[in-house]
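Intended use. Records such as the Peptidylprolyl isomerase entry shown here are meant for training and evaluating sequence-to-structure methods. They are not intended to support clinical decisions.
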Amino acid sequence: MKYLYCLGCLLAILFAGICSTTANAQGKSVDRIAAKVDNYIVLQSEIEGYKAEASAAGKNMEECQILQQLLLQKLLAAKAEIDSVEVEDKDVESTLDRRMEYMIRNQFGSAEKLIEAYGKTPEALKAELRPQIKEQLMVQKMQEKITEKIKVTPSEVKRFYNNLPQDSIPYFSTEVEVAQIVKLASVSKEEKNTIKTRLNQIRKKIVDGGEDFASLARTNSVDGSAADGGDLGWAKRGMMVPEFEGTAMKLKKGEVSQVVETEFGFHLIQLIDRKGEEYRARHILIRPNYSDADMNVPAQYLDSLRTLILADSMKFEYAAKQYSDDKGTKGNGGVISDPNSRSSKIFMEALDPGLYFAIDTMQVGNISKPLQYRTDDGKNALRIIYFRKKIAPHTATIEDDWDKIAAAALNEKKSKALNEWFKKSKDEVFINVHEDLKDCDVLKGKQ
């Protein structure tokens, strides 16, 4: 095939520039259907949007190359649908929440500026992006299914590195090794009571006043499902957190629960329907606000840990494993890993802004004072940061950069597997490419 499938390119297309199609939908380009894969379409505006995103990131991607990757994305989605690959609604919502929070915090600075840029509220944008996010998660899950058994041996990694042309050996910018200990803030009794009172008042409007649950969800819930009247869609057992599921499964159709507390906040739940072990519910979610006093408790706890570590009475790694609230890093002694290579070495520019600016003012070996931040799922927390190591910019070597080279070798092997999968699967679905793009030669099955 003319353009080898690239996992890195595909992921960039899937996740960079999530709102490019939203912007194009506002009239910044004239759409036409560039290609169709079963019920999935590739718009010309998508190609243009991703080309612009790549250019802004300093990458040059040809139109045909982008079309190739988008065709693979749509074929993966179509096959996922045929093979009944399911994506949980809670994963869609949590991904939406993370993307929206990132956009507000890192791209626009405030919700008001985001609304000014798009002419839409965050909730309206979420509603518009929800189908895209669900498709992307389906694609990711299908891709993982195809490549899950693929591994690379040490000899394959060495061969991959030795076969790289000299001018293709990557040059790595500054990298760091960072660890953290996280403590979540606890909600005060006063704040809990305030939220429960508010939700009970809403419940009274529904149960006694006959008001519509969905309408009240749209105006009161802070969850991404608010735009859909709180509707979370069909869920199977195990998909939702136990407190939510246990309550929802006990309700009768149309019944509204009492206030339920979960790790995500406080809910009112209404059962829409149930079929055996599957149920469909809507909810109203309110998350707590944290006072300075609420934040002082974990701050003092972390400060005490920091004092013990600095006095060499406790190792940072031990403290992280024993006391950190972050499940993703505590098992590894608090070390934050690169999500792609799983390496402990992370490029400075890949750090989240809060971590970047903290590290930028620290010396290697230092442990920060407690710093406030928001977890990926939107919880208020504090953390202390240990600046373990700093690696100067350098040309990659197999001795110093084994994890990244191994990840690149694995990526190439998976890309070839996807290439073969495309050639075998493309005839199982309807694919049509616009005549203006026929020269791309993306369906010939030739390398």
